[in-house]
Amino acid sequence: MSEAATTRVQCPSCNRSVRWRAELAGRKIKCTCGTVWSLPDQPPASGAAAPPLPTPAPALPNSVFAAAALASKSRLDQTLANREDEVHGSPFIEQMLPWILLAGGAAAAPLLNIALLGELGFGLTVWAAMVGLQVLVFLPVAFITLTLVSRWFNCELGALTDVLRKLAPIVLGTGAAADAVFLYIAMMMGGDYYTPVVGFPLYLLLCGLPLAIFFGWGLGETTLTIFFFLLPRVVIVLTLAMAFPKWFE
């Protein structure tokens, strides 16, 4: 038997010894392990060591994988937290600021009515009437306006409870204080038709600014919303001016 006939080569995958044959030189063969590889064109030198198998990469310890997974999770948690702050706002804006505006505006409204109108009884009566209008008229109108403007500008408002939790402090808090000042301005101007022009900046500041902060709206959405906020108030003030002209002298 010739040397070429007895020369053997090794499978590069499982290291199994395979006899080299001249008629199969350079052709692909399949080992019993399933690896397909090509026989050398020439038989290896007699006694030459089989080419060493590639050394597999050392396995990483479990602690390395655990540390990498923890770092990846931390980055993901931070990204989600940042995204949540962008969408929902900070805890102060979401939780504390609505209550601050509601309490501050609701406390300032009766004091403003009494101070500006100059009489305790008349001021409290006007304040009580304004509270009724704010709950029965202004708040529903504000909610409808908010819904329509958000659809017009393709803005996301969030859940109904969140919308009402943010809208109520604007209407019943800072809006109530703005209503007291606006009524006084209307009385000083004699119920003139230019009264809305003077009142609009007031509502834009006391209602529009919280609106922009709570919902992340721009100037266009905020201005349009305040315009519709002001409409029912203007109608009521002008109606009062015609029904009780002595109040507006």
Overall spatial form: rod-shaped
Element-by-element helix/strand order: HEEEEHHHHHH
Mean pLDDT: 80
Distance between the termini: 130 Å
Oligomeric composition of the shown chains: single chain
The whole-angstrom Rg is: 40 Å
Report the helical percentage.
55-70%
In terms of structural class, how would the helical and strand content be classed? mainly alpha
Are there runs of 5+ residues with pLDDT below 50, and where?
1-5, 83-88
Number of strands: 4
| Beta-strand percent range | under 5%
Strand order, largest beta sheet: 1-2
Largest sheet: 2 strands, antiparallel
Counted by DSSP, the helix tally is 7
Give a written overview of the molecule.
- The chain has 249 residues and is mostly helical.
- Helices cover 67% and strands 5% of the residues.
- It contains 7 helices and 4 strands.
- The chain has helices at 3-6, 62-88, 91-117, 120-152, 160-188, 195-215, 219-243; strands spanning 8-10, 17-19, 28-30, 36-38.
- Strands 1-2 form a two-stranded antiparallel sheet. A two-stranded antiparallel sheet has the order 3-4.
- A hairpin with a 5-residue loop joins strand 3 and strand 4 (36-38).
- It is rod-shaped, with a radius of gyration of 40 Å.
